[in-house]
Amino acid sequence: MRLVKDLLKLVILMSVLYVPPAIVFFDYVRKNAIESELEELKGSLESVFTLVESLQYAGFSADICNQLKSEARAERIAFFSYRSKEASCSIPDDLTPESFPTEPGPELYTSKSNGTELTYSKRNFSDSVISIGFQKPKEHSLGYYVINSKNVLTDIFIELLLVMWFIIATFVIVVYFNLQRTKQILTGSSRKQSFLHKAASIFATDDIQTLKQVSSEIKTQLDKLESGEMYIETNLQYSVLAEIKNEVLSGNKVTFPISFEGTVVRVDINGYSQIMQTMTLEKTREINVSFKSIAAELAYRYKGLFENSAGDEVVYCFRGENRIRRGMAFIRDLSIEFSEAMESKGLKLFVKGSVYDSPMLMDLGMNRLEFDGLSLLYTNRMFGSLEIKDQNVMILPSELYLLGNEFGLTSNETHISAKGMKLSVHYITSFHDHTDPELLKSDKHIEALLNRVHTETESSFEEILNLGTSLRLKKSSDRIKFAWISAVKFIISKNDLRQTMPQYLPTLISLGPVLLPNQWDDECSNIVKQATELSQERVSENAIDALLKLDLYNVAAGISVRKGSKRLVANGLLAEALARPTNANVKRLRMLASSSSIEEKASGLFASAQLVDIYRKKKIKEGIVLSEYKELIKILKSELSKTKSSPRVLSKIREALDSL
Asked: What's the pLDDT score for residue 563?
């Protein structure tokens, strides 16, 4: 590599030191040779004119043509044109004195004839006109000019100067490279070290960049995989740490280990190892992701907390009231939904799950928070006692046997034993209605409940109300979407039902964003707008609320609020300010929040707090920079300090200002 660099330096130095003087020298030689040749031709031309003039005055006009032709044959001239009273001739034959339009005189002129550049002179002698010329000297090689140069002494002097310059230039090059070599010898070790360090830093940088790219790609892939297996809200570690944070903020001292009561539920795909032997890795991974995705959604609905995952196995912990039943409902729904999903793909797959309740601990491990407890140990042991592979099963400790019957699960009469534990195996064959709505949160349960709207009974309405207060979803299926749309359309078509139970339709519309967090589309928006055309204020109020929760600001702003309640007007102004963040729209909301009317002010303050909260959380920059928005914040801060508004309004204002 260094040799290449040295050769490159040598070429550059030679180009700088040798080429310019060589160009100057050869240009001088060329120009000097051409000028010498031109002067020689001019001399020949003048001698011919002198001869013609002598013959003309001597009275030998007839001999002039012969003399000119003789000069042309001798190539001392290239062409001529002669005219007098006694004679007329030319070479070429078509030339005439008019072919040379210039005035007679001693000057040389240039013109082109048939593409050839000609140099000539024109003279008058008594009654004759003569023009004689020659072709411009041809360009020759530099060697020709050097060899045929007439200025020998001058050329020798110039050549000596050039040689001296070349010697000096060569000396400069030799000295330069010797200095470079000397410098390398004197500072070789440090230069080498510096180079190695630089090279190492370059390679290290490349490694870091590569690692960053790989890490980023791995994280992206992990995010994609884990997004179907767990939610942050359903993470056991996250949940306990959130409780610790609240304790610390309240001024309470927290020490590890942290103890709590928990029901552990361990689930996996029954016979998964045999499945892997008969399918490709990609196919088994697809099955596994589907299983964990369904598990994550159901755990979210039943407030289960993700603890761990390995292979096809997932472990969740349930805490708080009714935790054992919620854990069992989770296994029941997961088993049926997964089996049905696989059956739709032509596969017969089943789930097994174990349940155990005990005190648990969270402590600081070597590199992460770790959980411990009998429930984690026993749910694992319970799996080892099962040999049933062709059914959905739930394994319970014997003390929970009656709970299995409560869920309508069939069980074998013989209890099995696992390392001293008495267990009962229950078969899960179908969804079973439970009297507690907290235990009915699968897609199939929700669909069945929405379909009961068509019965037009008050009990179904009460069930819908209870559903709205306890349900949370992150993903839903088409079956829920179609059932919700069908229920809303049914009530829109039943005027009598709306009169007797006016809260039915507003409640269903409010449930829309809850039931369809990932399924909402234009069809859903259109059915909501259709419902608002019934001129029922509560429907329009809830419709705007629902659309704003889904970030459908333009759709919400399109709902008419001109003749409505204070809340409806405030919601309409809020939708306008979100759809089109301008000072004018925010000002209208601010004026409502400053109203002298108690009802208008309360509605305006609540909507204003919503606006501030949404602008900040959604990072709506066009709104945050508005001067009216800043004035709105001042009003909210002032109202919070007065504490005269209702607890609901103050809570919303506090939430909005906390987001600033």
From this structure: 67
pTM flag (> 0.70):
no
Same domain for 375 and 471, yes or no, is no
- Per-residue confidence band for 415, with pLDDT thresholds at 50, 70 and 90: low
Give the residue carrying structure tokens 């409560």. Answer: 406
C-alpha to C-alpha distance for 589 and 608, rounded to whole angstroms: 7
Return the amino acid letter for 412: N
Distance between CA atoms of 355 and 326, rounded to whole angstroms?
A: 11
Statement to judge: residues 417 and 486 lie in one domain: no
**353 vs 6: which has the higher pLDDT:** 353
Looking at the fold, whether 499 and 616 belong to one and the same domain comes out as: yes
Residue type, 413: E
Among residues 184, 179, 206, which one has the least CA distance to residue 195? 184
**Number of separate domains in the chain:** 3
Question: What six digits make up the tokens of 163?
Answer: 């040689």
Task: Work out the number of other CB atoms within 10 angstroms of the CB of residue 560.
Answer: 13
The rounded distance, in Å, linking the Cα atoms of 242 and 248 is: 10
| CA atoms of 243 and 637, how far apart (whole Å) | 29
**In a shared domain, residues 419 and 482:** no
Q: Which of 380, 399, 427 is the last residue of a domain?
A: 427
> Domain residues for 573?
466-658
Same-domain check for residues 380 and 492: no
Round to whole Å and give the CA distance between 404 and 331.
12
Bridge-based pairing of strands 410-411 and 421-427 is antiparallel
Residues 407, 492 share a domain: no
- Mark which of 145, 166, 194 sits at the end of a domain: 145
Strand partners, 353: 267, 394
Higher pLDDT, 334 or 308: 334
- H or E segment at 73? helix 61-73
Q: What is the pLDDT of residue 263?
A: 94
Residue identified by tokens 């020798």 is 156
One-letter amino acid for residue 503 of the chain: Q
The most confident of 54-58, 134-138, 363-367, 499-503, by mean pLDDT:
499-503
Q: What is the mean pLDDT of the chain?
A: 76
Is the pLDDT confidence value at 133 over 70?
Answer: yes
Nearest to 229 by CA among 324, 356, 334: 334
User: How long a stretch of residues is the chain?
Assistant: 660
